[in-house]
Amino acid sequence: MSGRPRGRLRRLREAVGPLAAAVLVCGALTVPASAASTAEAACWLRPGEPHRDWTGMNFAGDMWCDLTPGSVRIQSRSTSPVVGKMLFSPRWFVCWKEGSDYMGNNIWYYTQGDQMVSSPTVKAWGYMPAVAVKAPQHPFPGLTQCPWS
Q1: 22 and 65 belong to one structural domain
Q2: SS3 string of the chain?
Q3: How far apart are the C-alpha atoms of 145 and 137, rounded to whole Å?
Q4: Do 58 and 122 fall within a single domain?
Q5: Do 1 and 70 lie in a common domain?
Q6: Of these four, 4, 7, 45, 115, which has the most CB atoms within 10 Å of its CB?
Q7: Across all residues in the chain, what is the average pLDDT?
Q8: Domain annotation covers residue 143
């Protein structure tokens, strides 16, 4: 066969890209055991993942977790103004703090929303209630408590 892909393989590569076409043609993809176990977990810590919030505060890690999409509030209270929306799951959270009780839980997680709703200065940074975060325990073990708590 020449260097140019022919027929169905060429159309497949054009549609999905060369790497995906190779995987589809070969019919196998090896995933390391560590990645496979991480993919099955509802939440996990990423200690080396850096974030910088709208105030310039740096965070040296986060928690990656499934969530129920919803509102991100400027403060850890259900009556606080909404500054962002979380549209996608899973997402990351950099710390937690106690706030007002929301559906039987007073833990809130600090994050950055996917969409800005108000207060452009805060860039959708705020809090989501623990009931929206699908962690097995609140606060999630190993995630840092927010320093201003």
Answers
A1: no
A2: CCCCCCHHHHHHHHHHCHHHHHHHHHCCCCCCHHHHHHHHCCEEEECCCCEECCCCCEECCEEEECECCEEEECCCCCCCCEEEEECCCCEEECEEEEEEEECCEEEEEEEECCEECCCHHHCCEEEEEHHHECCCCCCCCCCCECCCC
A3: 14
A4: yes
A5: no
A6: 45
A7: 80
A8: no
* 17 shares its domain with 88: no
Judge if 78 and 45 occupy the same domain: yes
Instruction: Clarify whether residues 64 and 11 are in a common domain.
Output: no
Structural domain range at position 2: 1-30
- In this structure, how many other beta carbons lie within 10 angstroms of the beta carbon of residue 50? 11
The tokens describing 137, both together, are 């325990």
Domain count within the chain: 2
CB of 74 closer than 8 Å to CB of 119: yes
Q: Which residue has the tokens 């959708």?
A: 124
Report the C-alpha gap between 110 and 119 in whole angstroms. 16
Q: Is the pLDDT of residue 68 over 90?
A: yes
Contacts of 123 (CB under 8 A, 6+ apart): 53, 54, 112, 116
User: Do the beta carbons of residue 74 and residue 81 sit within 8 Å?
Assistant: yes
